[in-house]
Write a structure and sequence with these properties.
Layout lengths: L2 H27 L10 H12 L9 H16 L3 E10 L5 E11 L6 E7 L22 H20 L5 E7 L21 H8 L11 E5 L8 E3 L1 H20 L6 E5 L6 H7 L5 E5 L25 H17 L2
Parallel strand pairs: 3-4, 3-5, 5-8, 6-7
Antiparallel strand pairs: 1-2, 2-4
Helix pairs in contact: 2-4, 2-8, 3-4, 4-8, 5-7
The structure holds N-[2-(1H-imidazol-4-yl)ethyl]acetamide and zinc ion.
Length: 327
């Protein structure tokens, strides 16, 4: 064999050999992360801590105490904390002593991003398989506490490494207060999301705006799937594409799914329509399942046992990457 060709063949075979392990390590490590590591254990602990207060229903001591806990944690993590207290009227005319909590990083920067979640628990388990539970409150661990857990861990992260951009973590109250399914009277979509409606009409900083918003809703359960819902696609498709691509590039494609989710009434509706900030919803809703929402949704089964470190990690690390790549 010609010596040159022979050397060439050896080189090719060596190259193809040595390229194999590199390829497989590239698939395990995925893309290089630019953000700090998001600790799922820490986020899990913040979710568990909220569970110990009991359901966070406006007008209860558990709600006051858990609100105080969230405020104190954000302060511990160096945020500038603003509280909005408001009397908001429920569909049945019950007045809810409501409290929105905003933790700001780089409060003086005008370029900002907004991350939000609701922190209240639903007063009615109206989707429970057992009608005897309809009028009981839900614990709201996936539906409420999970989003707050992720945001508290992001706050802990930002205390250690300040992002280049301004970041506001908004915990809205009185989201899950819409009329129960069994209610016979008149009800409307605007019976939900009272805290975000209030914030959108009365932002905590005058003239507040942000480049975009990301809503977290039910981001803690094992086996969660996130599709782009119609509101996110209508108002913020570019932002949605970016988040989903980022999640997929980190290896989280089992969670961040391609395809269209449902039409979901959620806090992002008001952030888009009233505050005019393009806002995406990351919500566990499977358009291919019978109910869409997970089985524990609005049942007395929405407890710690559904919460998965992996799901918290998937959402938290994806958000961390978005935060730290924003300049
Ligand atoms: C309704 O339940 C009508 N919309 C979804 C918003 C929501 C409630 N997310 C959690 N709980
Ligand atoms: Zn709910």
């Amino acid at each position: 064999m010609n010596k040159l060709i022979y050397i060439g063949l050896i080189t090719i075979s060596l190259l193809s050999c040595s390229s194999k392990p590199k390829e497989s390590s590239a698939t395990t490590e995925k893309v290089k992360t630019t953000a700090p590591v998001f600790s799922a254990d820490s986020a899990y602990a913040y979710v568990e801590k909220q569970s110990l207060f009991g359901p966070r229903l406006p007008n209860t001591q558990a709600h006051v105490d858990c609100g105080d806990y969230i405020v104190s944690q954000f302060k511990r993590f160096g945020a500038t904390v603003t509280e909005q207290k408001a009397d908001l009227t429920r569909f049945d005319k019950v007045v809810l002593k409501s409290r929105n909590i905003i933790a700001s990083y780089n409060p003086d920067k005008s370029d900002r991003i907004l991350i939000l979640t609701h922190w209240d628990s639903r007063p009615f388990a109206d989707n429970d398989p057992n009608p005897a539970n309809y009028s009981k409150p839900v614990d709201g661990i996936d539906d409420g506490a999970s989003g707050v857990g992720v945001m508290l861990e992001l706050a802990r992260m930002m205390a250690k490494k300040n992002p280049a951009i301004g970041v506001d973590l908004l915990c809205v109250d009185a989201e899950d207060v819409g009329a129960p399914q069994y209610y016979q009277g008149e009800s409307s979509e605007d019976d939900w999301c009272l805290g975000s409606q209030y914030w959108a009409k009365n932002p905590h900083a005058p003239g507040y705006t942000a480049r975009f918003g990301i809503l977290l809703d039910m981001v803690g359960a094992s086996g969660a799937v996130f599709y782009k819902d119609n509101v996110s696609l209508n108002y913020a498709s570019g932002v949605a594409d970016r988040i989903w691509k980022k999640g997929q590039s980190l290896g989280y494609g089992q969670y961040f799914r391609d395809g269209q989710g449902g039409s979901i009434t959620d806090d992002h509706v008001y952030i888009n329509k009233l505050a005019k900030i393009p806002c995406v919803d990351i919500i566990n809703f499977d358009p291919n399942s019978r109910q869409g929402f997970p089985a524990h949704w609005h049942t007395i089964d929405d407890t710690m046992k559904n919460i998965s470190n992996e799901t918290l990690k998937v959402v938290g690390q994806t958000l961390a990457e978005i935060i730290y790549e924003e300049k």
